[in-house]
Design brief:
The structure is a homodimer. The first copy, chain A, is an alpha/beta fold. Chain A contains 16 helices and 16 strands. Chain A has helices at 28-43, 56-63, 67-79, 124-139, 160-173, 175-178, 188-200, 215-227, 242-250, 268-277, 299-312, 369-380, 385-397, 400-425, 451-460, 490-506, and strands at residues 83-86, 90-93, 146-147, 210-214, 233-238, 254-261, 265-266, 282-285, 316-319, 344-349, 360-364, 431-432, 440-444, 463-464, 466-467, 480-484. In chain A, the strands form 4 sheets. The first copy, chain A, has an 8-stranded mixed beta sheet with strand order 4-11-10-9-8-5-6-7, sandwiched between helices. In chain A, strand 1 and strand 2 (90-93) form a beta hairpin.
Amino acid sequence: LLHSDICGEKMNSNVIGPSTLQSELVDDRLYRQIASQIATQIDNGILKRGTKAPSIRRLSSERGISISTALAAYRALENDGYLEARPQSGYYVRERHNVNSTGILPPEIEQSTPSLEPTTVRNAELVVRVLQASNYASNSGNADLYQLGAAICCPSYLPTDALTKCLINAAKRYPDIGNSYDFAPGTPVLRTAIARRALDYGLTLHPDDIVLTVGATEALQLCLRAVTNPGDAVAIGSPTYYNILQLIESLGLRAVEVATHPNDGVVLESLEQALESEKISACIFMPSFGNPLGARMSDENKKRLVAMLDKWEVPLIEDDVWGNTNFEGARPKPAKCYDQTGNVLLVSGFSKTLAPGYRVGWVAAGRYRKRVEYLKIVGSEGNPTLPSLAIAEFLNHGGYDYHLRRIRRYFAEQTQMALEGIAKHFPEGTKTNRPKGGHFLWVELPQHIDTIELFEDAIKEGILIAPGPIFSARQKFKNYMRVNCGYNSPQRMDFALEKLGGMMKKKRG
Amino acid sequence: LLHSDICGEKMNSNVIGPSTLQSELVDDRLYRQIASQIATQIDNGILKRGTKAPSIRRLSSERGISISTALAAYRALENDGYLEARPQSGYYVRERHNVNSTGILPPEIEQSTPSLEPTTVRNAELVVRVLQASNYASNSGNADLYQLGAAICCPSYLPTDALTKCLINAAKRYPDIGNSYDFAPGTPVLRTAIARRALDYGLTLHPDDIVLTVGATEALQLCLRAVTNPGDAVAIGSPTYYNILQLIESLGLRAVEVATHPNDGVVLESLEQALESEKISACIFMPSFGNPLGARMSDENKKRLVAMLDKWEVPLIEDDVWGNTNFEGARPKPAKCYDQTGNVLLVSGFSKTLAPGYRVGWVAAGRYRKRVEYLKIVGSEGNPTLPSLAIAEFLNHGGYDYHLRRIRRYFAEQTQMALEGIAKHFPEGTKTNRPKGGHFLWVELPQHIDTIELFEDAIKEGILIAPGPIFSARQKFKNYMRVNCGYNSPQRMDFALEKLGGMMKKKRG
C-alpha cells in the first residue's frame, strides 16, 4: 500500500476555487491510482532506483492527464519516499530508507498544577487566531506544508473508497429516504449498529438511548446546554482540547481547570478538591486518550470518577472520540460502563478513525436524553440522512475492525517515531508524555521557549504546530505544544521536527 | 410523469428497521421504475381501464422483485389514481379523474390580534407531544397515512435522482476532499453558487458573507445566539413556525407576538407599538411566504421594516426558506436587499424545494457574521462535505430553475385544490387565508372546534394535521389549523379534507 499518498498536499476542501470544481482540480482518484502504479513499478524494479523518473510533462502526455494531476502523483510518491525532487533536474527514483529507530525517548512530563479557581475562558480569541492562521496556510496552496498542528489523520489511511461505495449504494437504493428528513434521534439502522458495537467494549446501550449529532462537537454542545445555565462552572482537564474551551466561552460558562497526569489523565484528588471548594455544574473529561494528552485513565479510576460525580450529583460529559485509538491491548471501556444512575453523557463519533468529512457523532445522554434530543431537534432538526446510512452500512459490512487494527498500528508507529525524533532534534530540557492512544504528543519545552512565537516562526517555514496556550482557559502552557503524529510520512515528520528543533535552539535561554 | 408516487407511503427513514437496510426494505428505485412502467402501460391502453391488474404475487414473481417492492409499486399507482384497491379482490385499473375545480373559496381570515406583552414560550411541551404523535403515526407502518400535518413536500416532486448523480460524482472525483473536514464557513464552491443566485433576485452577496449551516434551523439557532442573551425578548409573528418558538424556549428567551395580516405578513404598526413598549433584542420574521401563513410582505413594507429596525437598533433575523416558492410573478426580494447597515441576518436553505435530507442551509449575517461563524465552528465545526459539493454542482449544472418552475406550479395548483376542498367540505364559518407561496393553508374553524382534539381524533383515522396552538407562544389559535397541501395527490387530499370536515360537523356548536 502506498504510504500517506496525498499528505503534505493541499487537501482541505477550501482549495476548490469558485468555478473550478470540474476543470482545474487535481483528480484525487486518478493521481492516487497512477502513484500507486508507479510505486508498484519501483517495488518490482521496473523503474530502477537512482534513475531519473519521466518528466511531469511526459507523464502527463503519456497518461493523458493534466499537469496538476501528474504533479500530485509525483508529490505523493515523493512524500512516500519513492521519489526525490532534485532542483533544476526533476524527480529521481530513490532508495527507500526507514527512519532508523533509536529507541531513545525524551524524559517524561510531570502532572499539571492548575489553579482550581473558576475562570472565564480567556484564550478564545487566541484559538481563533491560531486556527485562522493555520487554515489560511493550509489553503494558500503551499503543497509542502507540514501538518503537525491540527489533530487530523492522513486521508490515505482512511477507508474512504469503501465508505464512498456505502454512500453510493445508499443513495441509489433509497433515493426518497435519502432525500427525506431524518429527524432526531436519527435513523435507527445507525443507532442499532452503534449499540451493537458498544457491546463489544462492555457497554449495554439500547438504540433508543442514542441521539445522532453533527460530529461529536454538536453532541458536546447539546450536552453542555442540557446540564448547565450561563454563569455555571464546568470542570475540565488541564490541558484540554481547545474546542471544549470555546464551547464553555460561547455558552457564557466558567471553567475550573483540574490537574491531569500526562499518562493517567484526570487527577481525582484534584477534582475532589475542586468539587469541595466550588459549585460545579458539569464535568467534561476525555478519559480514554484525551486530546492533547492521549492519556488513559485506568478502569479503577473511571469507576471512582463515576462514583464521585454521582455522589456530588454532577453530570459527567464523557468525550470518547479517541476511544478506538488504543495502541495496544483491548479498547478501553468508557467510564459510562460504570454508570448506574444515568449521570454520564457519553459522546463519541466517527471523525477520528473513519469519516471526518461525514460529520457523524452521537451521544448516549443517560437521564438527560430527552432534553438532549429536544435541543437537537430544535437546534438542527436532524442529521443529513445519507451520511448516516453510509456509516451504518460500513459498520455492518465494511470491515471496520480490520481497518481499526491497521490504523491503530499506524498511529502507534508514527507516535513512536515522533517521540524519537523529538529526543533527537529538540533542545535539552524537552519533555513529553507517553501516550497510549490518539496520534499526538504533549511536549514541554525549555522555559524560555514561547510556543506562540514558535507557531508564528514555524508557519513561515511551512510548518504548523499547536501552541500550548490554546489548551488552557488561562493561556497557560506557554512553553508547551501539541505535535500531531498522524498526518505526515516518517521522513517528512522527521524533517519538520529537525527544523523546529533548529528554530528552538536559536532562541536564547 | 408519475404523480406523487410514494406519497401516502411510509417514507420517513425511521421505517428502516435495525438490520433490514439490505434485505427487507422496499427498493425505492425499483418500485418507482416499475410503477412508472405500469403507468405508461395504462396510459397507452395496454392495461385496460376497469380490468383487474396482475396480483401482487404475480407481479413479484414475473419481475423477480420482493413482495414488499411489488406492493409499494401498486400503492404508488393507487395513490396516483391509476389503480384502486378493492377489498378481498385486489387491484383494478381505474378511470383517472381530476378533482373538478369549483372556483369556490372559503371566506378570508382577518388580521391576528395578539397581546404585545412578552411571554415565556408556553407551548413547547405541546409541540413536542404533537410532533411525537405525528412521527409515531408516520413510522407505524400505516401506508395510507394522509400527511396534512408537517409542511413537507412530496418526494417525487424533488429532483432526487439528479441530485444523487451530483453526489456520486463528487464522492468519486474528490474522495479525499469529500472525506475531509469542511470547517465553517464551508466550501467556497457552494458559497459562490449561492451568491450568484442571490444576484438573480437583486441581492449582492460576497461568498465570504455566507456561512453554511445544517439546514436553516441551525442558522436560526446561531443567529439568535449571536444577537441575544437569555431573558431577552424576541419579536415574532403571530402565528409563527413552531420551531422558532422552540428555539426561543430552548435559549431561555421570551417571545413578543406581533400582529400579522394573513396575506401581507407582519403588521408594521403592531411591531412599532411593541418596540415602543418593550426592550426587544431581535426580530425573527419570514417576510416571504412565512410558515404557517404563506403571506408575502410587499417590497415597500420590507423596506419600511428594515428602516424601522435599523432606527431601533434591533437586528432582523430574516427566515427566507420559502422565498423560492412564489406561485406567480418574480421571486420576491428578501428584506435583506434593503439592508444598508448589516443589521439583517438572512437565513435560507435548500430543504423546501430541493434536498430536505441533505440539511444544507446558510446565513448571510451582515455585521454579525464573525460571531455567527464562530458559534458555528464551536457548535458543530462544519457541515458534512459531500452534501455541500453535491448541491453546489446541482445549482451550477442541475437545472434548478427549471425544477423551481415545475414545483411552484405544483404547489400553486395543490394549494388551490385544498382551498376549494375546504370550501366544499368544512363546516360553515370556516375561513382561510390566500397564500401567495409555500404549500400550506392557515384555516380558521368555527369557535367551538378545538384543533388539539381534532388532531387526536384525526390521527386515529390516519390523518395528520397541524393544530393552531403549536404556532403560538401562548397556545392561542385553539380553533385554527395549518393544512399542508404539498404532499398528497389531489384525490387523497380531497378525501382527507372531506373526512376532516365530517369529523368537525359532528362536534356540537
